[in-house]
Amino acid sequence: MLQGVNVALGVSGSIAAVKAVELAHELRRQGASVRAVMSPAATNIIHPWAVDFATDEPVVTEITGDVEHVEICGYEGWADVLLLAPATANTAGKVAAAVDDTPVTTCATTALGADVPVVLAPAMHEPMYDHPGVLSALDTLEAWGVTFAEPRIEEGKAKIAAEEAIVTAVARATTPHNLAGKHVVVTAGATKERIDPIRILTNRASGKTGRAVARALHVRGADVTLVHDGPDVEYADVIAVESADEMMAASREAATTADAFVSAAAIADFTADAVGEKIRSGSPLSLDLRPTPKLIDSVREAHPDLPIVGFKAETSGDDAKMVAEAERIRDRVGLAFVVANDASVMGAEETRVLLVGDDDEEVEEATGTKDAVAGRIADRLAATLDAGM
């Protein structure tokens, strides 16, 4: 997600500075190079040696005659983005007032003047976060184009955002917005069909690929609606559903304002009539299953001109058969393209897919982490929308 991106990590004096080591590791796991800049207060909380180890680069703890702030964040400087994480009330206020009295605030002023993207992850006690002066400073920074990884309000504290949210904010700040102004609806994961108040029919789909696609679309500037049976996420407006019928209705409604629809969910193929009381165990049981309507058919019926991306999972392990099935569903529903994959990747961290478009387009293979493959899918959709499908 951050392959080839140079991240300057500004660490200031919140107790959340202890998270700088793992954050630096995660940025590097996502492909970024990281150089850290620390305020004096931060060095009282976490030793620069620890951050040096995490980044594999010397840590800047003072501005010297080498003008480190210019070398890192100036015109033609090293950094592609300055990430202030954690950013205290003190640091946010000083950055908004162009006060340069620590290496972190000096780098921030330099980055803002040089038009280097800045991402800010606040961390402080909740009363400080609610202070009118702090809120005014944050509003000023937002007006200057600073991107925020919003804090989690818990236990009377504005706690630093989760690593995933910070990485997502950095990626959005450093990735071309080729989907800016587009609204994309994504479905993800499995549905659950009730048998009785306790038991359900479902499948092994984890929803990781669908969520990764939603995240990749957000990173590229899209407004994303995620329809799934899963948690809230910071990169999309979530519509929570459980059954196939609920996902169907939510998808048709959300697609009303959409520029594209990505059907990544492994929606249940069969359902049953649920009973009101728990079915007693210990005896043989037969269920009458009936097929559920096809989600993409339903969305296509409601929105005849909407670009739709379909997913087709197979168990054959045969590329030719996967492509043939993808082409069949593409032609039946009129899909922009189909993402074909082997079902063996369900729940795994890495995947392999085949992107099947028009007959005159070569089938594209995408492999790697689900985030990386999701990026390929998002870029393919952007190209499709640009082509005016």
Query: Percent of residues in helical segments?
Result: 25-40%
Number of strands: 20
Q: How much is the average pLDDT?
A: 95
What's the shape?
A: elongated
Largest sheet, spatial ordering of strands: 13-12-9-14-17-18-19-20
Question: For the terminal residues, how far apart are their CA atoms?
Answer: 27 Å
Q: How many helix segments?
A: 14
Query: For the CA atoms, what is the radius of gyration?
Result: 24 Å
Structural class of the secondary elements?
A: alpha/beta
What's the quaternary structure here?
A: single chain
- Could you describe the largest sheet, including whether it forms a barrel? 8 strands, mixed
- Uncertain spans: none
Q: Estimate the strand proportion.
A: 15-25%
Descriptors:
389 residues, alpha/beta, five-stranded parallel β-sheet, 23% strand
Please describe what this structure looks like:
The protein is an alpha/beta fold and 389 residues long. Helix content is 35%, strand content 23%. The protein has 14 helices and 20 strands. A hairpin with a 7-residue loop joins strand 19 and strand 20 (364-369). Helix 1 (20-29) runs parallel beside helix 3 (48-55).
